[in-house]
Amino acid sequence: MTTVELGMPAEGPIADAVAASVATQGPKQTELKAKDMKTDQEVRWCPGCGDYVILNAVQSFLPSLGIAREDMVIVSGIGCSSRFPYYLNTYGMHSIHGRAPAIATGLAASRPDLSVWVVTGDGDALSIGGNHLIHALRRNVNMTILLFNNRIYGLTKGQYSPTSEVGKVTKSTPMGSLDHPFNPVSLAIGADATFVGRAMDSDRKGLTEVLRQAAEHQGTSLVEIYQNCNIFNDGAFELLKDPATGTQWSIPLVHGEPLVFGPDGASCVVRDDFGGLRIAETNQVDASEIVVHDAHRENPAYAFALSRLSSQDLRYTPMGVFRSVRKPTYDAMMTEQLDVARVQEPADLGALLAGGDTWEVKA
Amino acid sequence: MTAIERPETAPSSAPGGLVKSVVELDRVVIRLAGDSGDGMQLTGNRFTSETASFGNDLSTLPNFPAEIRAPTGTLPGVSSFQLHFADHDIMTPGDAPDVLVAMNPAALKANLVDLPGGGLLILDSDEFSPRNLAKVGYASNPIEDGSLEGWQTVSVPLTSMTTDALKDSGLGKKEAERSKNMFTLGLLSWMYHRPTEGTIRFLERTFRRKPEIAAANIAAFRAGYNYGETTEAFAVSYEIKPAPMAPGRYRNISGNTALSLGLVAAGQRSGLPIFLGAYPITPASDILHELSKHKSFNVRTFQAEDEIAGIGAAIGASFGGALGITTTSGPGVSLKSEAIGLAVMTELPLVIVDVQRGGPSTGLPTKTEQSDLLQAMFGRNGEAPVPVIAPRSPGDCFDAAIEATRIALTYRTPVMLLSDGYLANGAEPWQVPDVDQLPDLTGTVNFATEPNGAAADGEEGVFLPYLRDEETLARAWAVPGTAGMQHRIGGLEKADRTGNISYDPANHDFMTRTRQAKIDGIAASIPLTDVEDPDGNASVAVIGWGSTYGPIGAACRRIRRSGRSVAQIHLRHINPMPADLGEVLGRYDRVICPEMNLGQLSLLLRAKFLVDVESHTQVRGLPFRAAELAAVIQEVIDRTSEPVAPQVGEAGITAGNGAVQ
């Protein structure tokens, strides 16, 4: 049931080690269950944290990819979400604050045979690690970035984050925060990301569907996961989660389907006069005016316009896959350059060391 | 001139019936100076290549501003290249030039102070216009006002002779003028009997897509050579015989090139793919450029978005089983510090190359200094020991790179390789090694492929990523893709054996000491202190590290030639140091430590061995001069020879400074 294509390990000691493990332990196990993904480590998040729900969803989902556990690597930075690797029975690195995309880039670029995942948070990815995030996205290295956005700093006990709404009162901003938040989806699309999606921690079905598409995507995928921090920012996404208001303010994105949402499909998305998008009442517009979602549009302007429909208070929040386009991956192109170089100039260390101009000293 | 001049050996007859004499010299120091746009570095490099292929021993000192093109004709824009070549083994680019070529008034003004009286001064008279003279504050033309009488001054219209030679080339005047560096090179090639074929081949190769430019440069080069042969301005040419060298094949090599090739060789000899994560920075960028050319050797180069991403990606690649490398200079090391700590904690192999430059902050980007030693040793949070090694000459950068890799792989640790701007851009002849004679590093890569222990609950057949090799204390290294070995590592403190997160006080104390013991234990794999003391009578030792090897060595030779004894100790391994170093230093009455910083190695030696090291320092952005160092050493020897009077201190009669307790 392999749905994800992985490259081959290069020859040499790495391939030898992989072969040795197959020789002693049999062929790679790709038929796995959720329990196979668990480790013996005690999960150390606060009771009620949204991270538990995401972990369960990921543990259940990963076996469906048909990838052996040893071929998966989870890299994280620092923050509550970054404890994630300890709870998945794969290879993993819990690294330093903000740098996970850089570390994963080196790993994925040198090992195209691995499925590389980054788990990060809004502070980790967008504040201290903002630079690495945008550059990973523009390079299109083959990896999947899960950005848990709880709009707060949890591990440092409750300061505002780069996604907190303006005026947020926290320990570090007793009179309210002053800086305008990032919209992570807009940021990613601005960086020309080839895959951008958004899901809700508590929506197992929707989250799994976005994760599946992200994992199958060749290149860098960014999935923003709204995650509730029940200690420092409880109820941050209640507007979207509450059945009474959720359908009103969420816009489900399904490729090829018209963007109609709300109770009884009362609302829809149409083009505005300035090349962007706006919300309209379905019964006030002609059916032909309603935008049909196209995640594969090469030009990121449409996906960006979609991401701008939502405001800081989460009204009109599109959920699902905003953009999914094909572009060559960095790691594949790097491997290709090595292959071309080997043909153009076969490796001869003796000749390399001698260089062009040598002279001989006789005995 | 300090060179030994011998009587004329062979008058040669040049076209036109001119009889020119040939003088044999044992060594010459030439400095070429001009505007940043004059191509002095290229000219110097070509002259170096000609000299190398002729078989002289040589040493070079390029010296250029950080600005790519400072305003033309100004003092900040002056770029120079000094070359010392000889018929014998030499160690430095020379304290002072014997010959100064100044392409404009700014170059004269900036460099004349270094040219000893009587030295040969060659000037491009075309450039000594009132405007150019005014730019650098000359009230009158030094060529005409007699102020250069103390030197043998030859004023030659280099620019106009170049344009005359190229008047049929089809090039415009401005374009033709740009070949004046090749005219000058041709003249110098005649003066010093350099072989010219290499330069002609070089020009053809470099400008193969612009044949008219190639032809013009070659024509200018030949015109310069022929001018030397026919002019009366130069009556003498010089011959410097090839230097005796060990038999073998040689090439000319700069430190950055040697270091790059050492890394490629280390990858080949370990069997590992190489992954370089780097951000451009002077003077280290050439390593990124060089390695990016060698993809066929399984070398991946990644120009990262910043210094942190460069090392981060290298750590990620090391986790995947590659030889992770990052190259930078001091400011970059500052940015990488936290990530180096991660590599210490995760115990992954990593080579960190710091091509040091003047600091702090942006400092002197194109000038040399040795002031990152303490940063390399201690510049991280927590107890984060890292091995530190340093090459001593441009060619030695090759061996040092292989040694850094050996330590990184064997002990699963980040290693600091401290080069500097002088080594990076300086060049010397280098004996091309036999590939089969290079260290075999395959034994250092033993990826774990099978479970290696039992869990705390007694479960057999588990993989313990922090179970250590008893001899090296290196932890087991299992790479992703290896079934049954899945594990998680990271920056949080690790429990012994399992590598699980642990905040246990006793475990942290144990792991901190274990990480230190692992690095200290590297001393068992390195040679004992190498002391150069030919007569064995020295009571004064000079200790150094890195690029000061040449100047210290040259200074020690001077001392010995004067009949005195001095010992030279030069450290390749600074952390850990050779096991017997403290005992060796204790044998000497005085220990002098010259450094291009304010005494960083001295501080380490004093702290570690309680030896009263005398620090001699300089931070001028340039290497030490051998004569200055010799004077310092001489002064200490003189002081040591005198009887030392007992001193009466608070605690009664104590031994004098000369005694080591």
TrEMBL record, chain A:
Q: Native species of this protein?
A: Blastococcus haudaquaticus
Stretches assigned to the Thiamine pyrophosphate enzyme TPP-binding domain: 78-225
Keywords assigned by UniProt, alphabetized = Oxidoreductase
- Please give the InterPro entries that the UniProt record associates with this protein: 2-oxoacid:Fd_oxidoreductase, THDP-binding, TPP_enzyme_TPP-bd
Q: What is this protein called?
A: 2-oxoglutarate ferredoxin oxidoreductase subunit beta
Q: What is one GO biological process annotated to this record? A: cellular respiration
Among Pfam families, the record links this protein to: TPP_enzyme_C (PF02775)
Give the molecular function GO annotations: magnesium ion binding; oxidoreductase activity, acting on the aldehyde or oxo group of donors, iron-sulfur protein as acceptor; thiamine pyrophosphate binding
From TrEMBL, chain B:
- Please give the Gene Ontology molecular function terms for this protein: magnesium ion binding; oxidoreductase activity, acting on the aldehyde or oxo group of donors
Q: Pyruvate/ketoisovalerate oxidoreductase catalytic domain: from which residue to which, for each copy?
A: 37-226
Biological process, per Gene Ontology: response to oxidative stress
Keyword terms, alphabetized: Oxidoreductase
Instruction: Quote any Pfam family the record assigns.
Output: POR_N
Q: Which domain of life is it from?
A: Bacteria
Q: Sorted alphabetically, which InterPro entries does this protein's record hold? A: 2-oxoacid/accept_OxRdtase_asu, Pyruvate:ferred/Flavod_OxRd, Pyrv/ketoisovalerate_OxRed_cat, Pyrv_Fd/Flavodoxin_OxRdtase_N, Pyrv_flavodox_OxRed_cen, THDP-binding, Transketo_C/PFOR_II
Any idea where the Pyruvate flavodoxin/ferredoxin oxidoreductase pyrimidine binding domain is?
274-498
Q: What is this protein called?
A: 2-oxoglutarate ferredoxin oxidoreductase subunit alpha
Q: Which organism is it from?
A: Blastococcus haudaquaticus
Q: What is the lineage of its organism?
A: Bacteria, Bacillati, Actinomycetota, Actinomycetes, Geodermatophilales
